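Example record

One chain of 333 residues, shown exactly as stored in the release files.
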Amino acid sequence: MEKFKDQSALHLFKKGLITENQFEEVKTYRNLNIFSLNAELKLFLYLSVLLFTSGIGILIYENIDTIGHIAILSLLLIVIAVCFFYCFKYSKGFQKTETTFEHPVLEYLVLAGNILTCIFIGYLQFQYKTFGEHYGLATLVPTIVSFFCAYYFDNRSVLTIAITGLAAYVGLSVTPQDIFNDSNNLYASQSLSYSAVMLGVLLVLWTIYSQRISLKTHFGLVFLTFALHIVSIAAISNLTGYDTLIWVIFALILAGSTYYFYKVSYQYKAMSLYVFMIVYAYIGGNIVLFRVFENVDFSDIWELLVFLLPAYFVGSIIMFIKLIKNFHKEIAE
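Predicted structure tokens for this chain:
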């Protein structure tokens, strides 16, 4: 990493973007071996919020008969009110551009308040049936609150909760074990697969629209990441179906998704989008290849295939590494 940084500084100097004096100052500064603990401290703050909210959930579960529902709800409401009181007090208000709190702890206070709000609304629905039999509202209301908090306080962590809630409202499973489980609704319901694709498309369209009106443009990568996963998983899960027309349609959807996210990964210079795009394209491409040749009799050349398969997978790994290196080089320049 240090060698790469030195080469980057040298590259800037050779292109005339920095002076010789600036280049020497950069080298002198890096030789001091100073490093920042900012990322580590933020990680501990994030873990603290998760542990705190998880602890409240465990406390409610283990003492629900002793404490009482009204007392639990009152305690939650008080903590939520305190969190948002300080957040609104020290926030800069809603702005279309990227904003930050003067103190980073307040960002995690927003996250804590939002998670507790979701717990509070879920508890109301579970215990008192506040929304009656309209269980979707118990998901939609926290989702709306999360979107409001994400945009008002400019918080990416809360935005991920909001998008996850929106996916849950549509009916999509959001946990890894549900996504790859044979009983997952994406496999069982064709209409839900189309809903997943439509949700992914809407997230992409919202990102494009936000770019045009300059509304929280830094949220774009979050929306696109969710869109990539939702559309790709929905497409891949339907490539193994028996209906030829259906798997062909989803193969085309995956191909279109791959092309789009290939382009947008360069636009955002996002390694994560590029890597997952390649992974999904590789999985889907192999499934499609298998479907194309599933009725072909390879009994006469099976020995040749045994020798070719290891070479194919090794070649795939080499190609994957080469693509990543080329992408990293191109976005660095």
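Notes: The chain has three domains: 1-34, 36-170, 175-296.
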